[in-house]
Each structure stands twice: as C-alpha cells, then as structure tokens.
Amino acid sequence: MDDQQKVWAPDPANGFKMGSIVDIKTDTITVELFENKKQVTAPYDRVFPAEEDDNKTVNDNCALMYLNEATLLNNIRLRYKKNQIYTYVANILIAVNPYSDMPHLYSKDVIKKYQGKSLGVLPPHVFAIADKAFRDMKVYKQSQAIVVSGESGAGKTESTKYILRYLTESHGSGAGIIEQRIVEANPLLEAFGNAKTMRNNNSSRFGKFVEMHFDNKNTVVGGYVSHYLLEKSRIVGQSKEERNYHVFYRICAGAPEELRKKFHITTPDDYSYLKKGNTQYFTTKETAAKLPDNRKSSQYKKEGGMTDIILDDIKDYKKMEAAIHKLGVTEEEKMDIFRVVAGVLHLGNILMEDCSEDNKGGSMIAAGAERALKLTAELMMVDAEDLRESLTTRIMQTAKGGGRGTLIKVPLRKDQATHARDALAKAIYSTLFDYIVDRVNRCFPFKNSSTYIGVLDIAGFEYFQLNSFEQFCINYCNEKLQQFFNKRVLKEEQELYQREGLGIAHVSYVDNQDTIDMIEVKPGGIMDLLDEESKLPRASNNNFTTNIHTKHKANFRLAVPRKSPLTIHRNVRDDEGFLIRHFAGAVCYQTFQFIEKNNDALHASLECLMQESKHKFIKSLFPGTSSKSIQKLAFISVGSKFKKQLMELMEKLESTGSNFIRCIKPNSKMVDQLFEGGQILNQLQCAGMVSVLNLMQGGYPSRAVFADLYTMYKQYMPKELVRLDPRLFCKALFKALGLDDYDFKFGLTKVFFRPGKFAEFDQLMKSDPENLAFLVKKVKRWLLCTRWKYAQFGTLMVIKLKNKIEYRRKALVKMQSCVRMYVAIKKHRPRYKGLQLVSTLRKQLDEMKKIVNSIKEDKKTKDRLSKDVGEMEKAMDALVKRIKTTMMTRQQIDAAYFDMSNKINNELKEIAKKKAKAEEQERLRKIQEEMELERKKKEEEERKRKKEEEERRKKAEMEAKRKREEEEAKRRAEEERKRQEEERKRIEADRKLQAEKRRQEEEEAKRQAQMEQERRDYEMALRLAQENEAEAMQVERQADTLTSASPMMTPVIQPFQPMQPMQPLLPQRSEQVIAQKQTNLLKRHDLGKWKYAELRDAINTSCEIDLLEACREEFHRRLKVYHAWKVKNKKQNVRNETADQRAPVSVIETAHEQEQMHAPLIPVPGPSPGAAKPAQPAAPPSNEQRYFRVPFVRPSDQHKDPQFKKKGWWYAHFDGPWIARQMEIHPEKQPVLLVAGKDDLQMCELSLDETGLTRKRGAEVLEREFESEWDKNGGRNYLMLAIKNKQARQTYATQKLQS
Fold first, then answer.
1. Which of these, 78, 191, 59, 74, lies nearest to 124 by C-alpha position?
2. Which of 163, 334, 454, 806 is deepest in the core (most CB within 10 A)?
3. What is the pTM of this model?
4. β-strands 393-397, 1260-1261: how paired?
C-alpha cells in the first residue's frame, strides 16, 4: 500500500520498530515489521511515518523530514551509537548519559571552539547552551537560568559541572581564584550531598541552584549556592543496594591513618548507619591494589570493589581535601568537619534496649554500645552521662509551679529512644551540610552584581517500590519545574506568536496545574493536611492518609494504592498510602513516616545538650538559647519550609531567561552502548519533547528584535545602509541574502527564524570580505528596486490625492450653494409671504370697484365710494413699496396687513348696506329664477344620488377585493414566518449539534489524556517491576472510561476505542431516512473485519448492488481516516512543488466546513464476522455521470503576487457519488492521471456531496470537454493499461472504453 511507505509501529521494549503498512481500518493500521515479518495492529495516533533514509541523523530534530516522537527516538538512537550524545530539539538540548568517559568532548580546545558561536553553528553540546546563556545575558542584560532536568542517573550533575567549567574557563577572568572556587565547590558538595542509589552511582540527594554573578563588564565577580531538601532519612538507613553519603565511605577508605585513629574510624561494617546498605567502595584497579585489608568491609572482600567512570572513593577523598583547601577552609575547620562526620557514625552505634528495672517502660543503652556512647561524647565534647540521659529520657516542663514550672523527666521507650538518636544524627548532619554550603558561599563573596547565570541541578523524578516523604517532595518539585517548562516553552511561546501575528496553529499540552493544586493549595492540599495532622497531640499517619482520600476522592490525579499497576503496591491498605498520577506516571506513596519526617524539630533536651558542647564548632551548629519552653516537642514543618524555598526558586526562574537541558538515562543497568528505547521514549514524553516537536512543526525557536539585529550587523554594512531604520535594514538584508521566506518570518517587533536558520544567517553575515561586498551590492540593488516601487506607488498616491481634492472641491461648492439658499430663504420668506397676503387684499379691492361701479341710482354716493376705494388702493401700493424697499419684520408686515384688511372690511360693510336696498329690488325678480333653479337642483341631486350609489357599489367591490388581497398577504407572511421559524430552529439545532460535538470532543480529549496518563503509569510500573523483578498488572479503568490493552502488554496494540457520539439532531427528515438506510445497509453487510484489499476486490467483482454500495462506503471511510493521518504526519522540512493534494484547497475546505456543520450520519459498525464475498463480477450500476473542472494554485505560489502565481486545473469524473477518474494539469510539468482502483490512495476520497462541487458556480463541465482534455493528455492509454493489468475498478469509463 502507498508504495510500501516505511512507518514506525509501537514496540514495548524498543519504543518503535520499522515496518510497512499492509492494511488500514477506520481506527487502526496494520504494519508488517521488517525485522521479523510480524504484523502489528495499532491505533493511528501511535503509528508514524519514517524517514526515507534509515541511517539519516541530524543535529537538530526539527530538521527531520517527519517531526514525531518515533523519528526523534530513532535520531537519538543513531547518534548514540556514534557516540554523539547531544541532540537539539530547537533550542532545547537532549543529553544522553554515555556511561563512559569521553574526555575529547570537554577539552579546552572544544571550549574555545564554542566561544561566541550561535546555537546550531557547531554540533550540539552542553557548551553551546552555556555560551548561549552567556550571550543572552550580555545582549539582553537579563539574568539567565539553565534548568538541567532528568531522571536519577541521567547525568544532571555532570552536565552542571561542565556548564560551570565552561563559564569559568571561557568567560571568567583567566580562571582566577573566584572561578576556581566555584568549580571546586562541586566535589565538596557532592561528597556530602551525593550517594549511590539503585539507579545512579552518584545521585544528588539534594537540589542546588548555583549562581555565577557577573559585573557590568561581564566578568565573574562571585557566586552563590542555594540548596534544597537534603535527604535526611538516608543518614540513618538505606536499602540493601544503596549507600549512605559518599563522605562516610571516603573517610573509611581514603583518610590517612592519623585521622582514622584520632576519630576511631574503621570499616563500614562497624557502623550501624552504613552496614544496612551496600558497604563496597568505588575503586579502580590501581586503588584497589593499594587498599589495606583493615579498611575493607566483608562485602568488599567477597565481591570486590564497584567501578564507575567518575567515582573512586580513595582518590575522591584526596579531591575532597584539595577542594576544602582551595575553598580557603583552614586545617582546623577541616578537622572539625571530619569530627562531626565521625561523631554521626559513632552515634549510630549507640543501640537501645528495654530497661527491666524501669517499671514505666523506659529504655537504656545496650551493654555493647557503651564504647560507642563514650566515643560519641568524646567527639561531640559533651558529658557521656548527659548524652545517655538525653537519649533515654525527655525533659518536660509543666505549665504551672515555681517560676517557670516544674521539670519532669519522662523515660523513653526503646523505639522512642532509637528515634531520638536518629533525629539527633539527622539534625547534626543536616546542620553540618548547611554550614558547608554557607562556607562555600563565603569563599566567593561579591558586593556588586549586575546579572548572573544560574544552573539548577535538582533530583529528578523518582519512583521506587517504597516511596516516602522525600520522594513526595522531590516529585512535587519536578511537577513545578515541568509546569515552568510548559509555560516558558509552550504557553509563552504560543502567546508570543499570537502577539506578533505569526498565525501559528495552537499546540495542546498536558497541564499539570491540577496536580500542583492538589499538593500545595490551602486549605485542603496534601501539604496543608500533613501540617494540620502534625500539630495534633497524637498525630496519626493513618488519619492523615484517610483525610487525603476523603478530601480529594473526586480528583482523577489521586487514587488508592490498589489502583497501582504494581502488584506490591496493591497490597497496601487505603489508610497506609495514596497514589498520585504525576505528569511522568503514577507513584504510590507509603505514609507510615510522613509525619515524623515532616517535623524538623529535636527534643529540647538533645538540642540543649548540643548547645552546651565544649567544642566551639559543634556549638555553632546549634545556635539559639536553651531558655525556650520545653513543655512539649516543637513542630517545624519540613514541607512548608521546602515549599517556601521552592516558591523562591520559581520566582528566580520566572525573572530570568530560560535554557533547558533534558538529560536522558539510556538504560537501567547503567552500562554503555545499551539503548533501551521504550524507557527512553517514556522519558522524552515526560520531558515534554513531543509537545515541543508539535510546536516546532510550525514554530520559530530563534528570534531577534530588529534593533538588536541592526546593532549586531551594522558594522558589516556601508554607511548608506546603516542610515536605514532597523526594520527596513533587516528586510533589505534578508532579501539580499536570498533567504527563503519559509525560513524566517517578520513579526511586529521581531524577526523569527526556523530551527538552525539563524546560525546560517549569522555565518553568512560573518563570511569573507569578498562575499560580504557581493552581499552589500545585492542589498543596494534590492533597495534601488524597492525605492523605485515606492516611487511608483507614491505617484499613484499623488494622482489619487489630486482626484480626491477635486472631488472635495465640487462637494464644497454644492455645500456652499445649499447654505446660501437656506440663508436667503430665512431672510426673505416673511416679506414674500407678506406680498402674497397683500395681493389677496388687492383682489378684494377689485371686487369693491366692481360693486361701486354697479351702483347706478345714487351718483353722489358712488363718487364718494370711488374716492375711498382709490385712497385704499394708494395705501396698498405704499405698503407693497414699503415691504419691497425696507427690511420689515414679520410682526410689522402682519400689523400693516391686518390694518389694511380691517379698512377694506369696513368699507365692504358700508357698500353692502348701500347695495342691500338695490338687492331687495332684485330679490323678487330672482325668486322666480330661484324656483326654477330649485327644480333643476332637485333633478341634479337625483342624478348625483344615483351616481353616488353606483360609486358606493364600486367601492364595496374594491374593499372586498382589498380584503382578499390583504388576507392573501397575511397568509404569505405567516408562511414566511413559519419558514423563518423553521430556519431558526434548524440553525438552533445546528448550533446545539455543534455545542454537543464540542462537548464530546472535550470529553474525548479528556478521556484520551486520562488513557495516556494510565499508559504512562503502566509503563513506569513495568520499568519498576523489571528493576525489582516484581510483577506488574493492568489496572481496571474507571467506569467512565473504556478498557483497552496497554501497548506494553503485547506487540499487537489494541486501539483506544473512541466514545460513541450522541445521536445528532438532524435538521430534515430526509437526512434521517438516508442515514437510517445507510445504517441498515452496513448492519446487513458488516465489513468491520474485512481487509482493505478484500474491500477493493469486492468492489471490482461484486454482483450484489447492496454489498457493492456498503463496500464503497466502508472503503472511502477508511481512505478518509488514512488520508487524515497522512496530513497530520506530513513532511515538514520539504517544500516541493508536488505536494500531496488529492483535491484543490477550495474543495477540501468545503468538505471540512460541511463536516463541521453536520455530524456523520453513518455510525461505524463494530467488528463482527465478515459477510461472504461473492465471486462473480457484474457491471456497475447505472449511476449519474458528472464532470468538473476547478483551478488551483501550487502551494509554493500561495503567497506570491498575482502576476507570478502559476495556475493549474483539476479535473474530476464522478461515477455516482464517488470519483472514477482524476486529472491534474500543472503549468510546468507532466499531467497527473489517476483512475479508481489503481490510484485510490492518491485520489480524492470525498463523496460528490462532500466536495461541494455541485454548488460551485462554473465548476461543472460537459462530458465532451472532460474527455477532450483526458484524451489529449494520454488518459485513454493510461486507462486501457490499467484495465489490461486488471488494476482499474469497474466504472462507467471502463465499461465505455471496453465497449
């Protein structure tokens, strides 16, 4: 399948094994391994494509063609075989512990080679990270932190030493006294703080943050060491295969005889605090031959010494002494330190036994321990009897009585006295360790510091068969560091991309904030519950454990011990321990010593005894007065103290720039050239490397501010280029260098580079002068072309501005005319209306003239009236002239008008009286006329009545018609409203469907995260079981999750079954009918277990129409899932012109949108026995034939100018709902022809409805047009050849060609 593409399939032991795909299903892929031809079935998300070259290695994993966890693991494996232990993932260094000496990697020549080199210029190295931190500190004026993390035995301590060595020798002032002391502090701290464990011969049992401080001139001026959580329980006891702290064995093996005699030092077998564990020394052949017999333990004599490339107890004693002297410690102080160490050893030999004479159940010093008591008192310079009494009794003070109350001596039982002795030993050693760290800090003091580089080396994630309070605190610290890594590398990186507008796809990662809250939150956190329980008079570990389970019973991260995959933990009772699902895996903690280990206080009598020591040094280890209350044992919370220190550490890390080194442990046997892939893969996943790879698929790990690049490289540029602003300077630089646009991206304030590309850019800029001159020439040419383009754009802008000015000028003229018109109207409208009113009076005056002229009887009266009318006419003319010539207000005009109107009315009344007489005479004459008119009027009214009746009848008809039309409009409006309501309901149903789909996706993501957590839990339990030869078993999942086999159980990986989606709310009944029909069809022909090849053969040979349709549905469903897997795992660092596109982008996007809008209508049936397959071929059913043509642009031309884009054509022939033929016509290459059956994996897997082609305007073409292009490009011969080789599926095209 798919040209036998090589893929990685999961394997329990090796992580992944290479093979080829032989079958695909809707949820799993079957891979045949190259190694043994065995077939492995695994989920899609656990199978990854492999590189074409099996032996290809790269310095940076981001340069791989496929970025996934399998290729990451394979690249580390290949490099490890070549002794290349360092690898990059972007700016993060992966360091694999070689378990062998590699001096050539850390010589002074190598240190010089890495000075000032950008990350990626030289092969990966811890020196490169150290140099990057120094350069970032120098450029950004910000303190830097290098976080070295990894499991115990992964090489964190050695990496820390190499970082400090590089900084002191490379950037120190000639490796002066301060630099030497910073480096020499490590052997001393390792001697007192490191020990052999089951997983690491030189495990740091404390955390340290080493700060190297610099002044304004970037010169080392001092240092400071902060330490965290020394493992005190190791002082008094260890497991059989582990040792106490190195210093004890180095004194026994390498101390001179004078010191041994002075402090009564013998062999480890003679000390109770050492003989419980491994008593062998680390030696070489040379030192083993010189070791006297009186220093050898019985185990050493029987088994010989242990070997390690770093450790040698005899030589390391001398190194420890040399370090003490180089740090400025006097000989007297050195002897005081060794005195305390010897005193702790002898203190452990003071054994207790029950006192038969004491009826209160007290204890006493055993007879055989009297010598140890005297030696301890001698070394501690205290009275032996006082020591005896302080160990076997405790002084209490009553609240009342006397001045300060009465002192009461309370005898201690045997177990209480033993605990008091161990508490004293732990207190003495821990205070001694605090003194040593303080003494180290005093050796390189500093007054002024501008910045510093801090290196964090803290115990890695720990999990044993017995996990106690120390492991709980260490793993809590690692949870915080993992959160810091997620925030700094993943969260803040993505936020930066978003702020700068780079458009990088979001990468999800596991957030462990819920685990941290469960541990540290107040109230109710585990630490808070522990402190509350410790304060009680009768504190109980069982009660503390029960409170944890009660408080956090609903938290997925917490479980009872019986949920552990490890058999030994399942036997722990619920009130004796708890299980936490950490980011790296589940760890079961036994709580029987939690309360004891959480209390850092001593009995007051023991503390007073140490304060009264006659030895000045020992007395200084216990400062304070003995006057404090001794009424009861004080409580000092170790957990709260550690939490506070951790908060301060996280504040430091938050305020600094960050650099990460992920140390990897290659195998659990701690031998060289052994690569356990499964274990390493688990470490990579827990370290967050997989999430970083996902981010780096589209990310830009290197970046620089424009101004910084300008400052950095302006010295190489001529003056005319230096005058440019920083952004244009950088743009000109990149264009001139011819850098690929894919390799960098401009943000708002910074330029971002792909992995390794900044180093190439830096190398180009610092090349030889001739090449630089050529680059300058190219920059000038690019600037000239750019400025010419700017000039063209400027000219166009000027023309556009001129047109805009003209347009605005015309608009302003129009606005002015409108305003002037408004002002004129406002000014002259009253006068104009006044003239109109006067003109109406003139009409009345004309009527008066007519009336006066009609008077004939009285001439005198007529003359007088005519004279009055003439005077009124003159007055009216004067008023008109006054209105026209003077600015009269509206009120003045109205007053003049009303005055004139009253005069005319009065005159009319007088004329009416004169005329009344004449009218009376005329009245009689007119009566006759009126009677005649009345008759005519009645006739006219009758005619009008009939006319009105006719009009009313017509209006009634019109009203009835209007009502009918109105009812019709209401009916149409109601139908439209119902249609809109249905549309709204459909949209609401779609919205609910989308919300339900998002909810299901969130639940599925949560479920997958839980299943991934359980997978990591089982892998961790399996590793622990292999180390201890114990038994691990698969845990039953919770009720809300589905069971599935872990990949660690068997090579055949069972898939994680996805949750069945809820039945969607379908918008239309037709879709429900179609879905039900398809579901019934699939149930009738259950194809879940059919192979891909069997489906294809059935499609080509089936004679049953229903089976053929079911096979096609299943066939294309599998193709969709397979192509989605290919898209997810596509090549990242190859930008070829023939990208794997089975359809144009517009078609794929349409299908994606449709998929988002509608849930799948056809549920995937569960696996069941397949139906019998018919053997007789049959002609394909008569489906509708449709042809389409869609333009497309090559992926590399997407972001080019339109004139430079090269367009191609994509042709498709659909036989019914599925594609039968496909053709791609490219501008500058041979056409790509594909036919169904032969080229299924390269063809469009979408149905015709899903593509949206039928709804795309202009996409459908005639059969004649398609066949013409098909034949012209050789499609006819290609199809004939496929038919001849029996590779083509039977379709309309094959049937037509054969006929």
1. 59
2. 163
3. 0.70
4. unpaired
